[in-house]
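Hi R.,

Quick one: here's the Large ribosomal subunit protein uL13 sequence you asked about.
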Amino acid sequence: MTKITKPNEVKRDWVVIDATGKTFGRMLTEVAVLLRGKHKPCYTPNVDCGDYVIIINASKATYTGLNKGEDKLYHRHSGYFGSVKSEKFSDLLAKNPVKLYKLAVRGMLPKTKLGKEMIKKLKVYEGGEHPHTAQITKEGK
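And here's the predicted structure, written out as tokens:
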């Protein structure tokens, strides 16, 4: 019989990933898998089994695509008529790379309450320092 994991039985680890020289999208797909917990044998779709993920050196990742900086747009809408605001990938990267990482990973997680809880376990830092040294159990890939 298959064992169903309960929320209080989940053991969470802290994983540090250094973004220096890694491809942006490929790295974030790995992060989404870690946040969901799909890499664990106790994975259950309706339970948040994922680990905490810390990304350091966020501004040093590499980006593929010739014109992605100018062509890719991120949209937001307040709900009122004519209130769609768009921001270019390059502008968002220069102004707030942390927001860019969170938006990209959020799109790969479930669009439910469970997904909102999962994204809270992602910590992104532009530099090489982070305040979570006490929690670290293993280094990332």
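The CA atoms of residues 113 and 119 lie 10 Å apart.

Cheers,
M.
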